[in-house]
Write a structure and sequence with these properties.
Elements lengths: L1 E6 L2 H13 L6 E5 L6 H11 L14 E4 L4 E6 L5 H7 L1 H5 L4 E6 L11 E8 L5 E6 L11 H6 L3
Parallel strand pairs: 2-5, 2-6, 4-5
Antiparallel strand pairs: 1-7, 3-4, 6-7
Helix pairs in contact: 1-2
């Protein structure tokens, strides 16, 4: 299933993350794509909120991975400064293929092999505060359909 959703502001991006979380199966690998400042960490903040994480969500730019406990385990990765070989040496692939962990992976383009449980979310800025989200559920990880009503709730 593919979706395109217009997001008028940062809060809409957070709400989209929460909507995705409400339908997400455990073990999902969410490939977050978009340039610097596109809203990948903002979307992850909503995803974490929707998964019951109470901690503050920060970009793992320098730590590479942050792990959060909620209703489901969320591992948030930022691969901007690392190679695929670095990921393998650090054992990150164990998280990527763990059926009990939801992985939100910024700069997933650095990986040549992505898990089959794949949800791609590409964020494209369209203005100073607006963006478009292109969502592709390649791994059938959304339990149920993110319908038009839920998608439009992101922009209200």
């Amino acid at each position: 299933m593919n979706y395109t959703i217009l997001l008028p502001d940062e809060e809409a991006t957070v709400r989209l993350g929460g909507s995705i979380a409400a339908h997400l199966k455990s073990g999902a690998f969410i490939a977050l794509r978009g340039g610097l400042g596109a809203g990948k960490t903002v979307l992850t903040r909503g995803l974490a909120r929707g998964l019951g994480v109470r901690e503050r969500i920060a970009s793992p730019t320098f730590t590479v991975m942050n792990r959060y406990e909620g209703d489901k385990v969320l591992c948030h990765f930022d691969l901007y400064r690392v190679t695929e070989e670095d990921c393998l040496q650090a054992g990150f692939d164990e998280y990527f293929f763990d059926p009990a962990v939801v992985c939100a992976v910024e700069w997933s383009e650095r990986l040549t092999q992505l898990p089959p449980n794949l949800l791609i979310v590409e964020l494209v800025p369209t203005g100073e505060n607006t963006r478009t989200a292109h969502i592709k559920d390649e791994g059938n990880v959304l339990d149920g359909i993110l319908d038009e009503k839920q998608a439009s709730a992101c922009i209200q």
